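Weekly modeling sync, notes
Attendees: AB, CL, MP (scribe)

Item 1: holo prediction request
CL wants a bound-state model with phosphoenolpyruvate before deciding which constructs to order. AB pointed out that an apo prediction alone won't tell us much about the pocket. Agreed to run with the ligand included and paste results into these notes for async review.

Input as submitted:
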Amino acid sequence: MKTIVANWKMNGSLDLLNQAMEAWQLKSGTNKVILCLPSVFLSAAHTLLRQPNFFLGGQDCHAALQGAFTGDTSAHHLYDAGCRYVLVGHSERRQHHHESNAMVKAKAQAAVAAGLTPIICVGESLEQREQGLALSVLQEQVEQSIPDNATDFYVAYEPIWAIGTGRVAALEDIQQVHAFLKQQLGVGVKLLYGGSVTADNHAFILSLENVDGVLVGGASLKIDDLGKMVRF
Ligand code: PEP
């Protein structure tokens, strides 16, 4: 069983969620699904979700478990809303919110403390890849972003230049990076690839050695396409 993480980002609507839930109601699929929805939809999704292989995830959490942080969401809140997973360190958070590896690590620690499994995102920029720095950048990111004693977590390899661009990484590059990350982190680590995964290319990516699943942005908003990836 592979894991399909659907990241709606700041997209979708309650209407789309209802349509998706209706379409999937009587189906279960062969892959595990983690729906990372906008946080305001999580409680509604929790009420509607019936499939045993479907789980909910947040898209981010604060590093503190509670406090005076107006507008932020804590890992406890996500757990209360029905989440069992949370993305941390997505490149859009690292870029737009200037999140450092240390901040990502603190968020992952908060997630674990609240009973969530963190999905820790890493990935190199195009410039870093062209300069031959991809593996060293990734090594630094995993060394500094993963909590020291964490045992239950995913790492999502998402090359920044492949996210939302339609430019999926070459299969041999995905394979090289995933082999490297397994070597660095141990064979038991669960590794996802993310970056322009679609209903058309997901099967090739999922068939690669050391790829335990995919993280899907844009295509996860298309109910039929996500259904194909879940293998209903
Ligand atoms: C993402 O949101 O992490 C992502 C990989 O997006 P997309 O699938 O649209 O490239």
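Recorded for review: Residues 7, 9, 158, 163-164, 194-197, 215-219 surround phosphoenolpyruvate (CB under 6 Å).
Action items: CL to compare against the apo run; MP to circulate these notes.
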